Every structure is written in C-alpha cells, then in structure tokens.
Amino acid sequence: MLDLRYGKKLIGKEEYKKLMKAQGKLISKLVPKAEVVLATSVTAGGYQVKELEEIPVVIMDESTQSTEACSLIPLSAYEAQKFVFVGDEKQLSSFSEIPYLEQSLFERILKNGTYKNPHMLNVQYRMHPMISQFPIKRFYKGLLTDGVTEEERTFENTKPLTFIDYGKVHQESKVMNSSKSDVNRGYTFQNKGEAQMILRTLKDLVIMKDVSRRNIGIVTPYSAQRNLVAEMVQRDHLINPKNERIQEEIDDDFSISSNKRPASIKTICGIMVSSIDAFQGREKDFIIFSCVRSNPQNNIGFVKDARRLNVALTRAKYGLILVGNKSCMQNGDTLWKDLIHHFESKNCVATPNSLGF
C-alpha cells in the first residue's frame, strides 16, 4: 500500500501505476499547449517539459536556495533566450555536505561581476513597518521601503513586536538528532520550559485575541524543538479541541536540490510548526520564534547566523513574538545584542508575569 496526501488516502500499487500513467498522458497533452509552465528546478529537466518546442524566458524563483548543479538543469534544458534569477542573497542559501558547493549560482554571478547592475525589488508589502524596521536597517542597508502602512497591518489588541524574556529559569537540553537535518550533525537542542511558554503565548493569541489558527506560524532553529512544540500543541485540548493529528509536509525536491534530508513542516489544526530553514518563502499573520538556546556560557550556536535570523524576522505580517533567554541571546552575539536593544528601544520586551502568563 502507498500512502498519499499525509495518510488520508491509501491505494494499492497497481492503482498507483494506473494513476501515474494517466497523469503522464494528460501532462503530455496539456504542457505543449501551455503559455506558462510552472515546475521545480529538478522537474524542469523532466520529459514533460522537454516536449515544449520553445521557451523564450525562464524565471527561477528562490534561486539562492538552489545549488549551482541544480540550477544547471533549467539552464540547460531548453534554448532559452532569457534567463531571470530571482532571489535574496541576504537570506538562506543552499546547503551541501560537499565542500564549496553551498554557494548558489545566483550568488556567484553577483560576486564575480558577471552581472553588474542587478535589479532590486525595493518595496516590501508583507510586514508591519515596526517589524520591518530592524531587517531593513541591518540586513538591507536601508535600501528597502515599506509598501504597507501601520494601519493596514494592525490587529486588534495585539502588538507588532514582542520579546518574552523568561530569564534563566529554563535551560536548553541536548538531544540526539536522528534526522541529522540540523547544521550541527549528531545532536540538536530543545527547551521544554520555553516550549511551555510558547503554548501559553499561542493560547493568548487564539483564545484571548481571537487570531485564527491558520494565521499562526511557530519557527525555531532546531528540529528537536519543532517536534516538541508540535507534540505539545497536538495534545492541548484548548488549542486542538478536535484532537487532530499532526500533518507533516515533506519537501522531497528541496532535499534533492540541496543535498539535505527532506525539510518538513508540522501542521496541527492549521498551526504550522517549522524549522526556520523550511519556512523560508512562507508567511503568516503572526509568527512565534522560539530561540531555544539558554546556557551559562551564552553559547547560541548557529542561531547567530545573520541570514537565518533575517528569515525568521521577516515571516510575520501583523505580529512577531520572540520567546527566549534575553541575557543569553544578547551576550552570545553582537547581532542579537543589537536586535534586543531594538526591542528595548521600542518598549517591546516583556516577562511572563507582565503578560499575565
């Protein structure tokens, strides 16, 4: 038996073969007639797309997340008259276990001067201006502007920015990483106390602030914390009254193009719980960011990576809530020190007691 669509449907192997054969015939008829074809960089080299006689323009979105080798597939698949790379080198690039293959073709072209005057999309239409202020200043050197106003990104009884500081009460714990999908091979981190704080924050949004579950995302740098938070959300009867199962979205093409194991996002009754890396390219009205790291040495590991932090800070439209040990984070890295200072200057740092948790 084969499991399709997260286990909701089960069909036999013969039925699956018939389905794939019928799908192939349908694609062969429709693709040659299409004016616009959408494909991943890997499937762009498939037989279906090769049936097209001519492709005048190829546009590769999120091209910084593709390895150079993977980018060659759409480049070499057709005699394209124009190839357009769309990406953001200030956010996460591709990942490879092979040395020197982490750089994307997009980044190489920018660095070696092949294309001297790239066109910058300099207006952001996603974030509340208070959320976008730090990323614009720190990561984009003030070159971005806001295309939305504060009024257009205001949700009743909520703040656009909050850092919930639980102090040194909750410490991180190291656990074995069976999936080996984190940057640190062999182990990952979780913080149970912080996960409980996130659950309280989630209840405040859903029950007290009446935010739709489908408009909330929870991101974290570590897979163990993602799994822990997802399990806690699934077991909570207030957040998940119908006791819905955890649905896991696996991006197999992402793993092929970047030499990673499949990235996954866990969804419970509409709430997405994800690693930061897997959430790149997505957005939600409200994002809760679990920092995880909390130790006397103020060691925050790869959470200090500027591009990963940029991704995490730019996913929210109406509200961004960080949950973490303020002392550990600001003493662990100068970038985080500047970020927390920004929150403090906006009077956006709170404690569980001040929030009534």
From TrEMBL:
Its EC number is 3.6.1.-. Residues 14-94 form the DNA2/NAM7 helicase helicase domain. One of its GO terms (cellular component) is cytoplasm. Keywords: ATP-binding, Helicase, Hydrolase, Nucleotide-binding. Residues 101-326 form the DNA2/NAM7 helicase-like C-terminal domain. GO terms for biological process: nuclear-transcribed mRNA catabolic process, nonsense-mediated decay. InterPro entries: DNA2/NAM7-like (IPR045055), DNA2/NAM7-like_C (IPR041679), DNA2/NAM7_AAA_11 (IPR041677), P-loop_NTPase (IPR027417), SF1_C_Upf1 (IPR047187). Gene3D superfamilies: P-loop containing nucleotide triphosphate hydrolases. One of its GO terms (molecular function) is hydrolase activity. This is Regulator of nonsense transcripts 1. It comes from Wickerhamomyces ciferrii (strain ATCC 14091 / BCRC 22168 / CBS 111 / JCM 3599 / NBRC 0793 / NRRL Y-1031 F-60-10) (Yeast).
